[in-house]
What does this fold into?
Amino acid sequence: MSQGDDRQPDLIANLDFHVEAGLDLFLDEAPHDRFAEIDAPEPARAASSRPVLERQAPEGVRPPADETFRTELPPRGPAPPPARTYGQSASARPGEAAGDARARAKDVQTLEELEALLAGFDGCPLKFTAKNLVFADGNPAAKLMFIGEAPGADEDRVGKPFMGRSGKLLDRMMAAIGLDRSNAYVTNIVPWRPPGNRNPTPQEVSICKPFIERQIELADPDLIVCLGSPATQAITGTKDGILKARGRFYPYRVGNREIRALATLHPAYLLRQPLQKRLAWRDFRTLRAALDGKAGAV
Ligand code: URA
It folds into this structure.
């Protein structure tokens, strides 16, 4: 094996490390010590005779007015604001992307069309770091819908929600009240994995929200279970933390119909805090009673 071959795995491991750590955007072609640059005397910072790298905008990316991207090599002033932090779509701003998502989601009439729409939607930057779209699993005709936060590494690899350790726990919790994925529909508020398993940002959630809202409308369940705080807040609008919100039903309006949304703890949280499973168990018994139409499960 040549020296080059020996180094390859290190390079790949290094890249993997950075992707896992959340690095999802290249700002420049070479590393810079920005602290040293800020301390440098003013004239050095203002140097303007640097070479300029020009390249054509990639397909699908709205170029600046002069039709090229200009990268000064090496930039020496304080770090410029990133030119583009919101994906590579025509909808460069989160507000625009969310509006675009809303307009497009309204037009689809089936869950299959919604999945296809998401697969072609470039307005969320998470799409460009994820391996796969993670749309849904389980039975779309079920009267119960579980909504989590966002896919993790296992889900990203497989392309289905709740496939990893928290998915296994969710399956066990469902089994404890006589459910499985043949009688429940499972999805997330964000259908692409945030790099490094970080939480999705509020902007990413707001871009994806029209899609999950349309998904609920099309699946038309009788009951929703929100798993964890981000899903609960996005779906019910509550600002309460999950320990306060859990165990409660919130009204969720779809047209003239009101669906009930139960908040409970996320299985990933339960894996970290196993003692809290007793609270989740209470919530799942409430859920069972609601599915059975028992009085008091409101
Ligand atoms: N956590 C989630 O919220 N969703 C998944 O699909 C997996 C883990």
User: Anything to note?
Assistant: The pocket of uracil is lined by residues 148-152, 155, 161-162, 166-167, 188, 268 (CB under 6 Å).
